[in-house]
Amino acid sequence: MPYSLIELIGDTPLVESRVLNQNPNVRLLFKMEGHNPGGSVKDRAALNMIRSGLERGDFDKNSKLIEATSGNTGIALAMIAGIYGLNIELVMPENSTMERVQTMRAYGAQVTLTAADEGIEGARDYAELKVKEEGYIMMDQFANHDNWKAHYRSTGPEIWSATHQKITHFVSSMGTTGTIMGTSAYLKGQNPEIQIIGVQPKEGSRIPGIRKWPEEYLPKIFDPKKVDQIMEVSEDEAAHMARRLAKEEGIFSGMSSGGAATAALRLASTLEKGLIVSIICDRGDRYLSSNLFE
To answer: What residues does the Tryptophan synthase beta chain-like PALP domain cover (predicted)?
Structure first.
């Protein structure tokens, strides 16, 4: 029976670590979000933000949509906006990998590149100015509750069901924080003892998809009470682990997934027993023009 593309978003598989996890009393499962049609976990949030916004009448095919992105959300929004016949401009730092820029343009989005030294904050400032001065409508993944609700409705229930209600720890890198907020809300609702671990970069480290936000840019959807522990990883650790995931586990992913896996393995080494689920948020092929796999 044929499916529409958006029906293929979600229901991603769990893959167990067979090499990297050295604790025989702990199971470490990787949630393979690169299996979404747009190649990342952001397909879930993008679909819910667009579909819910259309249902509420927040925008229509005549609206000018805009969003700042570090890459994966932009690709997902470009794909889904195209399916719904919407016009969208995506704003990202000019040092973003060419694969990401070209993929967004292939889906029909307009891509605007902002100064690399201003980071994603500069892209967010640009988008907000277009909203204020030119009547654009911003999806605003950092404040849009449809972001985390996508994971409350899909990612959390999938993990709960696929682990047969045995999950003890959930590990996720934190960018917009939508994934960890929604998944935490669902899992804690099923079992308050489940531990939620967020991953941030160490001071001075730059890891695509993971941020330690300045106070003025902290995502409005973030609720610190939904995270039990925050682990910090370095840029080198995240890159090294991304390469190990590919070489030793056959899991081809980006640096944010390497960061989450670093934290998950660090956690696994400290537990007497448990079942950890760690998010592999995207695929490695969108990093091939960077030096990640050199």
So the answer is: 8-282
| For residues 223-233, average pLDDT | 97
How are beta strands 169-173 and 195-201 bridged, if at all?
parallel
How far apart are the C-alpha atoms of 135 and 44, rounded to whole Å?
A: 26
Summarize pLDDT for 136-176 with one digit per residue, the tens: 999 999 999 999 999 999 999 999 999 999 999 999 999 99
Scan for tokens 């990297």, then name that residue.
20
CA 115 to each of CA 124, 142, 168: distance values in angstroms, whole numbers, following the listed order = 12, 20, 42
The set of catalytic residues is 42, 256
Q: Which residues are annotated as a binding site?
A: 72, 175-179, 256
Distance in angstroms (rounded) separating the CA atoms of residues 252 and 258: 10
Backbone angles phi, psi at 9, to 5 degrees: -80, 130
Pairing of strands 195-201, 229-233: parallel
pLDDT of 102:
95
Structure confidence at residue 213 (pLDDT): 85
Instruction: Give the model's confidence band at 294: pLDDT under 50 very low, under 70 low, under 90 confident, else very high.
Output: confident
pLDDT in tens, 43-75: 999 999 999 999 999 999 999 999 999 889 999
Model pLDDT, residue 1 = 60
Q: What is the average pLDDT value for the chain, to the nearest integer? A: 95
